[in-house]
Amino acid sequence: MLSAGLTPPKPSISGFRPAEGRVGQKITVSGTALVGATAVTFNGTSANFVGNASGFVTATVPAGATSGPISVITGGSTATSKNSFTVLP
Predict the structure, then answer these.
(1) Is the previous residue joined to 9 through a cis bond, with omega within 30 degrees of 0?
(2) Which residues touch 40 (CB under 8 Å, ≥6 apart)?
(3) Mean pLDDT of all residues belonging to the chain
(4) How large is the C-alpha radius of gyration of the chain?
(5) Which residue in 3, 10, 34, 71 could disulfide with 80, CB within 3.0 to 4.6 Å?
C-alpha cells in the first residue's frame, strides 16, 4: 500500500499472446503496473484472471467474448490494448 500521498503508477498494456484464441484459452497480457489488477475484460466481457507479477496477467477468454481490445483495471485506472484480440469460433 502506498502512503505519503504517492499516486500509484498508471497501468499500461504492451501486448498479449497469443493474439487469437478460443473461449477457455489462457492469454498472457504484458505491460507495466499490472500488479493489483481488479478486473480483466475482453472487449468489455469480464474474464477470470491471475496477476502473476507487476508486468504480467494471465486471463482466460470468457464465454460470450467478442474480438476487440483487452483491458486491465488496477486501482481505478484502466489500461487498454492498442491491438485487438481475435476470438476464434
Answers:
(1) no
(2) 29, 46, 47, 49, 57, 59, 70, 71, 72, 73
(3) 92
(4) 13
(5) 71
